[in-house]
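Standup notes, structure subgroup. Blocker cleared on the calcium ion input:
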Amino acid sequence: MHDMKAIFKKHVKKHKRKILLGSPIIILIIVLDAFNFFANEKTALILLPEPSRFVTVDRSFATTVKLVARTAVNAVGGSIRFNSENADILDVSQKNSIINLWAEEPTFLEEKRGVSFQGGILSEGGFVGEGPLMKIFFKPRKTGKITLAFENPQVLAHDGKGTNVLGGKNELTYVVRDSNLSSPDINGDNAVTFSDISIFLVNWPVTSDVGKYDFNGDGKVTFSDINALFAQLGS
Ligand SMILES: [Ca+2]
Ligand SMILES: [Ca+2]
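Run returned:
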């Protein structure tokens, strides 16, 4: 055991310079990777929460459907479905859409269990870049999760053959909580991670801003709120 420790120490000492030099590169790669989750080379369809995945049951919320085209494209279509027992669709807006030729304007699927759409982008040389396709407005029915997903999505290349060049798409899950509970996503990065718990602990004991840290809704901030936040880790 001691031998192992000694070997390890010796190795670290010997390679200290390399380890120190290498570490920032590894960290940089991890950070860049996180930023590039959707910004890689793939043409993708993205469901974007506005502004947050963490919503309250008493309020409506919106999802922007966005296209990221890495090569020239001219048509996009598909449908978006969700678990409709937990929410209702209020409206779909095409305002600011990059689609300027609708073959099928966004229409509600049966019993508003989703939205289907099909359209073209009139642009010389095809469309490259990113922009919104539409915005869907929802009203939660109850607390729980609402998951949106694409069904049969297509993004067609401006190549005269209509090749489907869609390389990626995401699923989006909203977490609906009671209106008297604080959002577990303290730093607003759309995930509940150790960073949120760390921020909470930095502010512990909470004497002001009770409304920000009352995760169980009893009007005060106690250890129970730490437990309540831990319970939502990863959501
Ligand atoms: Ca967070
Ligand atoms: Ca509390």
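Discussed briefly. The beta strands are 43-50, 54-56, 61-82, 87-93, 101-108, 114-120, 127-140, 144-157, 166-169, 172-177.
Next: hand off to the docking folks.
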